[in-house]
Structures are given as C-alpha cells and as structure tokens.
Amino acid sequence: MDSTVATPDAGAYPKKILEYMEGFLVSKTLFTACELGVFDVLLAAARPLSAEEISRAVGASLDGAERLLAACSGLQLLEAHRHDGRVSYSNTEQASLYLTRAGPATLYHSIQYSSRTIYLCWHYLTDAVREGRNQYEKAFGVSSTDLFEALYRSDQEMVKFMQLMNSIWNVCGRDVVTAFDLSPFKVICDLGGCSGALAKRCTAAYPECTVTIFDLPKVVQTSREHFVKEADCRISFIEGDFFKDPLQEADLYILARILHDWTDERCLQLLRRVHGACRAGGAVLLVEALLREDGAGPLTAQLYSLNMLVQTEGRERTGAQYSALLTAAGFSQVQYRLTGKIYDAVLGLKEGGT
User: Fold this and answer.
1) How far apart are CA 301 and CA 295, in angstroms?
2) Is 162 exposed, middle or buried (0-12, 13-18, 19+ CB in 10 A)?
C-alpha cells in the first residue's frame, strides 16, 4: 500500500474541508439570531431597522449586534440595505416564514432544540463513536437506561421536544402522509404521535379518517393542553407504552421517526405487536429518513444516523433494511417512496383483506 502523502500544488485550496470546519459557526449564528429574536423584531417592525435599533430591541451590545447582523446577511437570512453609508436590515422571505416564532411554518422551536439539546450531545460525538452509545450522561448528567426518561428528563425538556416535532411535521407532514394513498384506511393509530401535528396532516388529507394518538401519559396530557384543541374532533388519545401496553385495533398504524430510535431487536418487537393488533387488510406506515442502498447518502440521512448514535439506541436505515424488519414481523408487499424532502415513507400490508 502506498503510504505517501501527496504534496498540494502551490495553488491548491481545500475549500470544501474549510467549509465543513466552519459549519458549526454557521449553525450557532443561526441559533443565536433566533434565540435573541432578531427575526421576530424585524417582522414586527415591517420596515428595515438599523443595527442600533435591533440591538436595543433584543438587548444586545451594538458591536455584537453589528457582527451578528452582518453574518446573517452573508448567510442570506437578512437583506442588507445600504444608503448614505448606513446599513439597515430586513428579513428575507424565508426568514419571515421559518425563523420567526409566530409563523405557521416556523422552525423556531426545532432550531432552539437543536441549539440547547442536540448541539450539547454532539460535543461528545467522539466519545459516542468510540463507545457506540448515546451521550446523555456526559451532556446532561442523566442515565439513558430508559431512553425516554432521558429524553423527557424534565417537563420543560419534554415540551421543547414536542415543539420540535410539531414544527417538523408542520413543514414536512403532508409530504409523508400523501406519499401513498391512505384513503382506504379509515381508523388510524399514530404510535408515538407526540404533539399531534402529523395526525392533523392525516385528517386534513383524508377527511374520512380518524386518528388516535398513542403515547406516554405525560406526553398525552401535554399534547391535550398545548397542541390538540377540542376542535380537532377526529383526533383522540390513548395513554400507554407501546412496548408494553395493549395496542388498539386499527386499519393503519403510523410510526413516524420511531424505529430510528431503536435497535433492530426492539424494532422487530414493536412491529410484531403492531402486526398482531392490525386488522386484516390493514397496513403500517413508517416515516424515516432513508439511506441509499449503497450507503452513499444522502448526506442528511448519514448525519441523522450519527445523531441517533449520540442521542438514542438506533440508527437510520435503508429501505431494504426496513423492508426486512417489516417482513420478519409478518407484513408483506412492502413499498417505499422517496419524497425528495428530509423524510420518506415505507408501507407494509397485513394480508387477509379483500
């Protein structure tokens, strides 16, 4: 094997490597601007504001605000308006849509969770790779023997996680529930349905269906209090642990971002329980970020798989790997479809229908 290292040409420049090295700077710039409320202030003002006006509104130093705003402009999150030697700023269209707290498609809560929880876990990525396990104990001083006890280690953390899921399905939910025609399935059970955002996408896309969210008691209580209103009459709840408690009979079970949390053994255990409860002719829909069969991408799914190492017991998988799990659990005619977005859909049928 040739162990020599090539000498770079005089004009060589490792652009891609340097961009990757600077990636965390980009993330933290976005996180900080959201946390300070820069985009909210500009949305409320409805006109360009100077760095001085913004710094006062968000409670920041003028020097710090000027640097942050310049970087956000460079990232094309803000528009910089220059006139007579002065600079003022306004939101880009995407910033107003996705980075303000009140927008219907806001990713604000997802960004906050990434900043305050996921980012801290990723500080220990090297340890996670060496040890092959998640890093909640080092990051937060809590045991991860029970994964969701760690994930929901406080009421505040649980609400933050639910807000994360809510924002993701508000943006991506319709794509995954319409990847297949689910209209034949009238009675749907959303296992680990969390805030109910995906259930709402289902009832909007399929007006004849009802959806029952099955989740832990404290999650159900919080969802009822903060996310699912009385007006959502086609959405109901059952409290329980889907690994231990009886599952209600349904035509379709949705497991959205559930299996990627767990080992193959735990996934198979859960899928067998779902198969046993599923009506003949029914189905299970998995919603996950699918890796390509050769493992060569997409990059987002590869990075998410590292995140599963840092935060959970699981991993991202290929469509064939999910198909093998579904088949082993008793499902057949497994199909998977790429949405072109972050999350994809896998459908397995239970034989016995007409």
Assistant:
1) 10
2) buried
Q: Known catalytic residue: 260?
A: yes
DSSP secondary structure string for all residues of 321-337: HHHHHHHHTT-EEEEEE
Q: Nearest Cα to 164, choosing from 111, 217, 115? A: 111
Q: Kindly give the pairing relationship between strand 250-256 and strand 235-239.
A: unpaired
Reported as a single tens digit per residue, the pLDDT across 178-194 is: 999 999 999 999 999 99
In the numeric block, which tokens belong to residue 148? 């969701």
Nearest 5°: CA angle at 118, between 112 and 124?
145
Q: Which of 247, 306, 249, 303 is nearest to 278 (CA)?
A: 249
Residue 109 · residue 34 · CB < 8 Å: no
Query: Which residue among the candidates 81, 83, 226, 260 is catalytic per the annotation?
Result: 260
Distance spanning both ends of the chain, measured CA to CA: 61
Residue 155 has pLDDT above 90, yes or no: no
Name which of 79, 86, 87 is nearest 39 in CA terms.
Answer: 79
- Mean of pLDDT values over 96-123: 92
Closest by Cα among 119, 135, 152 to 34: 119
